[in-house]
Design a protein that fits this description.
Jelly Rolls, 22% strand, globular, alpha+beta, 2 domains, five-stranded antiparallel β-sheet, single chain
Length: 308
């Protein structure tokens, strides 16, 4: 997948900060009044356009960034950034009060409102949404300025972001919209679970779909993972779960995920387990059911696939 890349490597140390500062959108640098901390400055960033969301993966030294009222009025940039902290920490002030977050935390940053944030050396991944788009799901998003989620509430989104930032460069360009939808769903699940805001009806459905996918992806290897059990884990009724799912349905998605994982394992020359053991490892209890489903999906038997 295509992405914009910036690195301070190869730039003279005294020129690095200004080079970083002068980058245009989709970098947020020019939208902030920044002050770097003492020591040599470095920055490495990759920016992906994922449909309705721009993902920026940044590794850099610590700095203090201010979004004063004068800049808010001058540039008119009206977006909301969701910042995931993968390494390091941050703290700051908004009109609503102070905030602080550490590793594996999520913060809501309303670019249409003034704020000050100081970060340590580390890695931040920001998801930037047009305000109108995020307001479809979270009508009162402006009230969440400076909200920090951590621990279990932030874990699904942080984990997904960590996985996707490793996979994105190798993905096809056509996958960008799907990835953006997954990130939106995971974000809405986190916000909904936090109890910090009211989501729209559309957001409830998107968030539940994301939560369902996350449950399946974490537990697909369990043979007794049924629709009823997924509904219980998601804490909704089966009827509610069915209404929120994609056209292919829960059972079909679960089978497709199991088969895809089995195909990866069979392709791995280091995995010398018997085919029946691999079938069991991905959640199939019967080898004949696994073989039929695999041939239907891939046009080869598991043995032929391994031989290829």
């Amino acid at each position: 997948m295509r992405f914009l890349n910036f690195t301070s490597d190869g730039i003279a140390p005294r020129e690095r900060y200004e080079e970083w500062r002068e980058r245009p959108w989709p970098s947020l640098a020019k939208l902030l009044r920044a002050r770097r901390h003492e020591g040599e400055f470095y920055s490495h960033a990759r920016i992906f356009n994922l449909g309705g969301v721009v993902l920026s993966d940044m590794r850099m030294t610590g700095q203090t960034c201010e979004r004063p009222p004068s800049l808010v009025r001058a540039d008119g940039f009206d977006a909301v950034a969701i910042v995931a902290v993968l390494q390091g920490g941050h703290h700051g002030e908004t009109r609503a009060g102070s905030f602080r977050g550490g590793v594996q935390s999520i913060m809501v940053c309303d670019m249409g409102s003034s704020s000050v944030m100081a970060t340590t050396k580390g890695r931040l991944v920001s998801l930037t949404f047009d305000r109108r788009e995020i307001q479809r799901f979270v009508p009162g998003i402006e009230a969440l300025q400076g909200l920090v989620l951590s621990d279990r509430r932030a874990q699904p989104l942080v984990r997904l972001i960590d996985i996707l930032t490793k996979q994105l460069p190798e993905m096809e360009e056509t996958a960008s919209g799907v990835v953006g939808q997954r990130l939106v769903g995971a974000l809405l699940s986190c916000l909904g679970a936090s109890g910090a805001c009211d989501l729209s009806e559309e957001a409830e459905q998107v968030g539940l779909r994301s939560k369902t996918r996350w449950i399946i992806e974490q537990r697909f290897h369990e043979p007794d993972l049924s629709v009823a059990r997924i509904a219980a884990l998601a804490r909704v009724s089966r009827a509610t779960l069915y209404r929120s799912t994609q056209p292919e349905g829960i059972a079909a998605y679960l089978t497709r995920l199991r088969l895809a994982r089995a195909a990866e394992l069979l392709r791995d020359p280091k995995d010398t387990r018997q085919i029946s053991e691999i079938a069991l490892a991905v959640g199939f209890e019967r080898i004949d059911s696994f073989s039929r489903a695999f041939r239907t999906a891939y046009g080869h038997s598991p043995r032929e696939w391994r031989g290829r």
